[in-house]
Amino acid sequence: MLATPSAQACTGITLKAEDGSVVRGRTGEFGTPLDIRLIVIPKGLPLDGGAVNGARAKTWTSKHAVAGVNALGGSYALDGLNDAGLSVGAFYFPDYAEYSEVSGADDGNVVSPLYFVNYALTQFATVDEVRKAVGDIKVAGAKEKEWGGMVPPFHWVVSDRSGASIVIEPVGGELVVHDNPLGVITNSPTFDWHMTNIRNFIYLNPLNVPPVKLNKVEFKSLGQGSGLAGMPGDFTPPSRFVRAVVFSQSVFPLATGHDAVLQTFHILNQFDIPRGAAAGMVGGKREADITQATVAADLKSLKYYVTNYSSRRIKMIDLNRIDPDRREIIQIDLPKRETIDDLTPIKE
Question: Start and end of every Choloylglycine hydrolase/NAAA C-terminal domain (predicted)?
């Protein structure tokens, strides 16, 4: 059984390129192994909203093919990209997620939090379509044994190839939608709190602080990065939100989506958590978050990229090339061990 770790430190950003590409990237952290795999969900597949209590889950047929990542071998994507250029990611939202109370009157209109990404990606093509659809469903779930006997607490970021982005949060039993103009998301508390907190750090600047003269003595900064002195460096969600805004907003112009994908991975390296750096006590045992996966979705080229803790090599699925006639969910294992290239110049 999955014990609930002390922190879940997922971080999401968005970059745009001069060729019109939009790239959404994120890290995925957890304190216990999630056996993260790539998942492909084809068109024309009957799907449902997962396990819910008090009502019958929604059912539908997939309109769009999806590439993404799952956890614990489930048939649900927790993050992904569809063939229309829509991208959705679930982010942990502990202590703040408040799902709907449902009854038989809600039969056929309920989706569990584990299957919300599936629903949005297989049914819709744009942010506006998702925004309208959330008013017609309720999100409620059942306790999941594999998730520590709880209903997993999530909120979601939704982005499309136009660059539009929203955050959807279950608060007070309702789905609250926030515009996300910066394309950034982390975890608790609510998204509007994070956007207000940015005001505490508007002094941050990627440009170095100029020299200062005091009584004819000139003082210069000791090195590069003085404009970011005071930027929070810990792994809490508020601190990561601030850093994600700073790093994603300060990038140099990017020519292509490919450039934006590579830059996304470089930025998200700043949020990579090595084992032991963010830990807590769970059931009397020390447990540490690690970055189990990092992904990037190119919403224009329809390519989905991933690295994992065991292998920093970038893996990719191209939605333009998947078999359109497949009618089953495909799961693809990620490497369990890093391969190192030996470039030693040796005598032949």
Answer: 10-329
Of residues 15, 80, 22, the one with CA closest to residue 244: 15
CA-to-CA separations, 281 to 3, 10, 98, 272, 276, in angstroms, rounded: 11, 19, 25, 21, 12
CATH 3.30.420.10 fits 12-332, yes or no: no
Across 70-106, b (16+ Cβ under 10 Å) vs e yields bbbebbbbbbbbbbbbbbbbbbbbbebbebbebeeeb
Beta strand 279-282 pairing with 217-219: unpaired
User: In the block, which residue shows the tokens 């492909």?
Assistant: 40
- Residue-wise pLDDT for 114-153, tens only, equals 999 999 999 999 999 999 999 999 999 999 988 888 999 9
| pTM more than 0.90 | yes
Domain ranges in the chain are 12-332
Identify whether 113 is preceded by a cis peptide bond (ω within 30 of 0): no
pLDDT at 162 over 70: yes
Mean pLDDT of 44-48: 96
Check whether 34 has a pLDDT greater than 70.
Answer: yes
What amino acid occupies position 157?
A: V
**Residue 267: predicted pLDDT:** 98
Average pLDDT over residues 207-228: 94
